[in-house]
């Protein structure tokens, strides 16, 4: 049995964020996972900064933490993720300008890099996004180019997913928490934000392009992954892991959990990035388990509310598509990954350095190889800084966004068609892309 991971003593300062009127308004007691009895889970609720500061946001969000063997680490991770969610609220009060991209040309992130929908997606009568208009005034905030270290203006809609009162012209991007990270080490925060953007790029491309990824044996990924897979197997859940590293060379694992006897949640997916494939796999498995448990725990609530089926085109809730795709009758949609997986062994994937500065330089270099421009936006509020945290949002518009909106899959973005070719996979045209909704949540 492995030893429980410990929370570093210096990071317990995050408890200062927890208060009925604080950044984190409440934390649940850590409890054992139903599917992983040697793992713990915990949730933390973000306070309501919009109401408290008169900004009219009034939204509630939660952070979650999971850890094998350690309730303390699960609690710590939940508080940290809640702090990350808080950083995405529109409460920072940072400098902003209102201008068009044409007016800021040469000093702003180039619009030609921005992800875009296809013409067919924009033409759908229920499409919720609009094409970016370089002549329309929008709000911009300061960011830093990670390659040149120069300041530039970034659309506020891309820099703050909790942006208050969005203008019509700002509805060109999908608002989601991708790229956000908090950490006591600013460099590690930036690295983790970049890794998440890369992970979501892989998730979006592999699903839409139906890429038959190389398979990974859990036993070959270290003791932790092997123990997690064994516990799931004892509960009749099969763990299928795939190497989704792709053309950027950043260790990425895609996890598909299959519960063949479950009448409601047959299939769930998640992904992870890390310093190596073993690290990435642990995160992917724990996240996939959280999806299964969430869907089961909220199934009764939906039944009590009398919630009926939702049409695919109306799926706007974060977990709506994952619930839809988890149903047994849609198990065949995952066949492009699962069928013949054993015949697709994974090649060796090099690990990133342990030192965050060296690892970040490698990641930036690999992004530069494909012509991408990664930008970091500082989202550190006073409350987080007082606890020794740095909060960032890493924006890499050249990569493929992961969207759970079935009508906004960014099928017009060139990355969707370049990435498979660079990774040695066939490239499907728009009309051949995966018709099933994105099951990731």
UniProtKB/TrEMBL annotation:
Gene3D superfamilies: 3.30.1330.230, 3.30.160.660, 3.30.40.250. It holds the Pfam family YcaO. Residues 65-441 form the YcaO domain. InterPro entries: TOMM_cyclo_SagD, YcaO-like_dom. PANTHER family: RIBOSOMAL PROTEIN S12 METHYLTHIOTRANSFERASE ACCESSORY FACTOR YCAO. This is YcaO domain-containing protein. It comes from Streptomyces sedi.
